[in-house]
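In this supplementary section we document a worked example of the pipeline. Step one takes a protein sequence of length 321 as its only input; no multiple sequence alignment statistics are reported here. Step two produces a three-dimensional model, which step three serialises into structure tokens for compact storage. The input and output of this example are shown verbatim.
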Amino acid sequence: MKTAFLFPGQGAQTVGMGAAIARASQTAALIYQKANGIVGFNLSEICFEGPAEKLNSTTVSQPAIFVTSVVLLEVLRTSSGTKKIIPDVTAGLSLGEYTALYAAGLISFEDALVLVQKRGQAMQAAADATEGTMVSIIGLDEEKVQKLCNEAARGELLQAVNFNCPGQIVVSGTKAACQRAAESAEKFGAIKAVPLEVAGAFHTEMMAPAAEALSQALKNTQISETSDINTIANIDAQYYTGADEIRQGLTKQLTCPILWQKCMERLLADGVEKFYEIGPGRILTGLMKRINRKTKVVNVSSLDTLNDFIKSRQAVERFTD
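The serialised model returned by step three reads:
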């Protein structure tokens, strides 16, 4: 029976995340402390106490989600009831792919966090230089979303960029085009259109300057060529086979669509039966219900969920260092 570890991306953050587990675990507290030193500001305080406006900014939310996901992963790895759980494959939604590569042993915590921070800064800079945003379209298939984009674009940038699960596709482009798409969605049969609170048109050519900056940073980053644990790429639902491929995949992420549904369908087709979502929130757990209703995902998003999981495995003691 194959096992996969899944890691969430931007949007999973909530004020208070990681606070309880950092109080309960020296392992967790030390990771947050180390992260504060790497990013150069009190990241843990923003995770634990907010304010939400600060946590939700692209430059903060990306390192915050990465670090909190790593904290939960390392507590899972070191707890007596769960340390024997080893994945065959890792996957992460957009930003979460950095956590997936770390979990597979392909990149160090320090290098991954530096990259994530630079990624957030570069994406924010590219967003500030453009007028873009994103809208989640609920209830349409790919063909109808494409028709919606064709009509609403009116010569401006508008494209489907996040294929999350059946009936949930995110479009990205200029603010005016996204507004037209949101207003026209119901006409095409959508249940609703939800404007996203994001800084810009992520996963489109508007992020080309950010992709260039990230590409330069990746050239100087040490990435392992191989691992016993496979990692699947967002951009094509194929497994990474080397360091250069990883560099290319992480760069293309910023300007190319994210094929999360295809990634999950690939893992299911390849025999993965046990899935663990590790990180803040339950976004990936919810998406899997829409991708394959029979597939159960164990959610590890807090100290409580970890303790509940350990109890379900009939662990002798609740987790504590």
